[in-house]
Each structure stands twice: as structure tokens, then as C-alpha cells.
């Protein structure tokens, strides 16, 4: 892989991780540190495909070592971190033209030998022993190629925002992709993330919660017509230019 391609690989994974978990990281271990080492672990530990496939065979087993305090902080804030990183590695391998024989396993381990600013990542290829895993990976990669058709959010019945990024952060703070001028919305309230061909909404530990179709959620796969409430703000998710007949409740203004 050329230096240019390698840099693009690192940047892509960094954007995925930082967008998904920006609210988790402090000045100790940074999102880009994990992105850098994961991408390098994948490329430096890849091997030729045994069946003549021109794509390098990427490792399918990763172990991330962190200082115990950092480990406890990340896992308490996002218990599904290992699973989501695994999904990001699938997307990364797919876009970088690497081959994964099965869904990668990622373990996050507390290591007392490390300082709070250190991390190490070990990667290896384990012989595939579950044929269904390869089928799951193939299906996931196929789904990721079919993104939603013209996905949009209607904000408070006043503004339509196209969802043209894989990660969209929503909250009261102006460092979000979508800023809601609503005192009942947390600074970093929620996140919408593209996962295998569909947008999924996450509550990022907001103070007042997130409701979809009047049901409190922590994670919800969005479907066209879903009505989302954060604080006193209402967002409607739509696809395929279906912008008619959406609710027009009176709510605080929105900046984006």
C-alpha cells in the first residue's frame, strides 16, 4: 500500500471513531490514537490470500490494551465499543480493498503496565472456524453499499437538512453538525450514524432522553416517517423526497 493510500486509510478510520465517540475521549487516549494503531495493525499484519485473491487478507482478531482507568471510563460510557469498532473495521477493510475472512473480533483489555496516555494493539489472523461469519460479513458489506435514498431530517417543521455524512452529531453546542436552540436539549444530545446501509439514532447520554414515535430509546434504526423528540424539539426522518404531511409543531428555532 502506498503512503498516500495508507494516510487515507488512517484518516477514514479516525473520522469514524472520532465522530462516533468524541464525547468519550479526553486528553489521555485520543480517538486518532486508536484509529492510527488499528489501521496500522490491519495493514502491517495482513497476509496474502491463500486462494489467489489479489486482496490482502486482513487480521480478524484485535486486542486493544488501555490503562485500567481509561478502559473503565470508555466501557462504562459505551459498553458496545468493541462491537462498534468491529463494524468500523469491516467498513474500513471494504473501502480499502482488504479481505476479511470473517467478522473481526475486538477485545478491549485493561493493562496496568500502561500509562493513561498509552495504548497498544495486537492483531493476528486466526483460522476461520465458523462459515456463517463469512456469510454475515459478506451480507454486511453488501448492505453498506446501498445507502438510504435521499435521507433528510425535518427540524421543528421549519427546516430540511440532508443527511449527507456517515456520522451526524446533534445537540445544543455549536460544535455539533446540527445545533438545536433548545434549553432542554443537552450540549451533545444524540448521534445519527450510518451502519450497514441504514441510519441508526443513538442517545449519547443526554439529560432529558430521546424519544422516537413516543418511545424512549437508547438506540434505534431509523425508518422513513419516524418522529424524533429531543427536549422540546421535533425532528422527522424521511427518505425518497417524502416531505409532505410532516408535523409542524411550534418549537424553538434550529441552527445547522
Low-confidence sequence ranges? 129-145, 244-253
Q: Structural class, from secondary structure content? A: alpha+beta
| CATH fold label of the largest domain | hypothetical protein PF0899 fold
Percent of residues in beta strands: 25-35%
Question: What does it look like?
Answer:
By secondary structure, the protein is an alpha+beta fold. It has two domains: 2-124, FhaA, phosphopeptide-binding domain (DUF3662) (hypothetical protein PF0899 fold), CATH 3.30.2320; 151-239, Tumour Suppressor Smad4, CATH 2.60.200.20. Helix content is 28%, strand content 26%. Helix 1 packs antiparallel against helix 4 (81-95). The two termini are 38 Å apart.
Amino acid at each position: 500500500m502506498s503512503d498516500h493510500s495508507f494516510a487515507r486509510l488512517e484518516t477514514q478510520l479516525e473520522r469514524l471513531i472520532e465522530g462516533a465517540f468524541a464525547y468519550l475521549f479526553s486528553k489521555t487516549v485520543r480517538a486518532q490514537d486508536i484509529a492510527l494503531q488499528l489501521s496500522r495493525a490491519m495493514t502491517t499484519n495482513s497476509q496474502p490470500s491463500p486462494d489467489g485473491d489479489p486482496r490482502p487478507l486482513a487480521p480478524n482478531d484485535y486486542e486493544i490494551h488501555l490503562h485500567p482507568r481509561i478502559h473503565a471510563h470508555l466501557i462504562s460510557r459505551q459498553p458496545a465499543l468493541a462491537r462498534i469498532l468491529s463494524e468500523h473495521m469491516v467498513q474500513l477493510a471494504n473501502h480499502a480493498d482488504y479481505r476479511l475472512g470473517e467478522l473481526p473480533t475486538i477485545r478491549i483489555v485493561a493493562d496496568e503496565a500502561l500509562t493513561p496516555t498509552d495504548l497498544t494493539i495486537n492483531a493476528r489472523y486466526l483460522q476461520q472456524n465458523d462459515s456463517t461469519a463469512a456469510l454475515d460479513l459478506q451480507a454486511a458489506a453488501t448492505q453498506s453499499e446501498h445507502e438510504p435514498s435521499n435521507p433528510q431530517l425535518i427540524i421543528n417543521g421549519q427546516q430540511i437538512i440532508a443527511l449527507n455524512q456517515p456520522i451526524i452529531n446533534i445537540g445544543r453546542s455549536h460544535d455539533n453538525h446540527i445545533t438545536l436552540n433548545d434549553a432542554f436539549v443537552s450540549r451533545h444530545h444524540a448521534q445519527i450514524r450510518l451502519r450497514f446501509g441504514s441510519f441508526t439514532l443513538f442517545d449519547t447520554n443526554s439529560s432529558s432522553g430521546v424519544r422516537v414515535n413516543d418511545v424512549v430509546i437508547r438506540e434505534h434504526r431509523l425508518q422513513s416517517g419516524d418522529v424524533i423528540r429531543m427536549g422540546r424539539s421535533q425532528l422527522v426522518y424521511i427518505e425518497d423526497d417524502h416531505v409532505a404531511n410532516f408535523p409542524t409543531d411550534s418549537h424553538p428555532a434550529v441552527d445547522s
